[in-house]
Amino acid sequence: MKDQVNDRTDQYGGSLENRCRFALEIVKAISDEIGPDRVGIRLSPFADYMESGDSNPKALGLYMAEALNKYGILYCHMVEPRMKTVGEKCDCPHSLVPVRNAFMGTFILDAPLNKYNRNTFYISDPVVGYTDYPFLETAA
């Protein structure tokens, strides 16, 4: 789906719509076969590992969220954009809020994890270490 790796010149390449076509055809086929209430998708429009980014990841994520609505699938699991550290400051230039607002079904994100304390790894104390981290607060 990303324009930095999709260099096709047929109906599956070029425009944003064409680059997303194959994924949406798969979602439709699976939904038709087993029902949309048993289908989910995981997307990572902001990931750019191994030079596989997109020139406009926000538009890619937004387009897919809106296009997926017509299939009524169970969920969309979106990988959050990575923060970038510049000096002492962390910055995240992208937001999933517009994508979340566009997708009408269940929207799943990876929760922020607690910072680990390596000094408590593999110790015999049953109270300190893996079991004493704060619990994830969930929205009601």
Q: Tell me the Rg in angstroms.
A: 19 Å
Helix count?
3
The tally of beta strands, per DSSP, is: 5
How does the major sheet shape up?
3 strands, parallel
Polypeptide structure, described:
- The chain has helices spanning 16-34, 57-68, 97-102, and strands at 40-43, 75-78, 84-86, 89-91, 106-108.
- It is of the alpha/beta class and 140 residues long.
- A 3-stranded parallel β-sheet has the order 1-2-5, with no helix packed on it.
- The chain has a domain at 16-112.
- The protein is extended and about 60 Å long.
Structure, briefly:
Helices cover 26% and strands 12% of the residues.
List keywords for this structure.
extended; alpha/beta; two-stranded antiparallel ribbon; 3-stranded parallel β-sheet; 140 residues; single chain
Write the layout of secondary structure elements.
Elements: H1 16-34, E1 40-43, H2 57-68, E2 75-78, E3 84-86, E4 89-91, H3 97-102, E5 106-108
Parallel strand pairs: 1-2, 2-5
Antiparallel strand pairs: 3-4
Helix pairs in contact: 1-2
